[in-house]
Write a structure and sequence with these properties.
GO terms for molecular function: nucleic acid binding. This protein is α/β, with parallel strands linked by helices. It has 7 helices and 6 strands, in the order ααβββαβααβααβ. The chain has a 6-stranded mixed beta sheet with strand order 5-4-1-2-3-6, sandwiched between helices.
Length: 195
């Protein structure tokens, strides 16, 4: 709608945008409401689960120090221009991992990618990344979970970085007792029919 000056001027709506608008309408209709302050006002110390994620040219990593659990997913067709997508997909995958326990309400996910932090905190992205946000929101709404995505400097995210690069020997030496697993990213939701 940017640049429009006539209040009743018609705007073109793409098929993808129409699907996303239907998705939000259906979610709002089915919702019992969200208390925004309850969802936002909690500290790191109040988190039920803390996870760390990273993506590299060859894979994605999730590190959960409290379990201790390390998960790796290879990237089959590495494309350096898609690293932001994989950083965000690692966050969605970590959220999917957290919900699988069915016992965590407040989850913090650290990533060293500031664009990913911004995307999840603003719920604003380019259209190609909206399926990531829709999937995350579906998980959060269905499980009644609260999520905070926070930035961590890359130098402090060394275990998730090692996992994403398939350097399990580093994980074993720095996080003794950690179990190593492979994961498959969740299927991404893209429209109201996937709810």
């Amino acid at each position: 709608m940017a640049g429009k000056t006539e209040p009743f001027q018609l705007i073109w709506v793409s098929v993808a945008l129409c699907r996303e608008l239907l998705w939000i309408a259906e979610r709002l209709e089915a919702s019992d409401g969200v208390l925004l302050l309850d969802a936002l006002e909690w500290s790191i110390s109040e988190a039920d689960l803390v996870l760390y994620t990273d993506a590299s040219a060859t894979g994605m990593g999730i590190w959960c120090p409290s379990l201790p659990h390390a998960s790796y997913s290879p990237i089959d067709t590495p494309d350096p221009t898609q690293i932001f997508f994989y950083e965000a997909l690692a966050v969605v995958s970590a959220l999917s991992f957290a919900v699988s326990f069915n016992r965590f309400q407040r989850v913090i996910i650290f990533t060293d990618n500031s664009n990913t932090v911004s995307m999840f905190n603003s719920l604003h992205a380019k259209p190609d990344y909206n399926p990531l946000l829709i999937t995350a929101m579906n998980i959060l709404l269905d499980a009644n979970m609260h999520l905070r995505v926070l930035h961590i400097p890359g130098s402090n995210n060394n275990i998730a970085d090692a996992i994403s690069r398939n350097k399990f020997e580093v994980v074993k030496s720095e996080a003794r007792g950690a179990t190593l697993h492979f994961f498959t990213p969740p299927e991404l939701s893209s429209d109201s029919n996937s709810i």
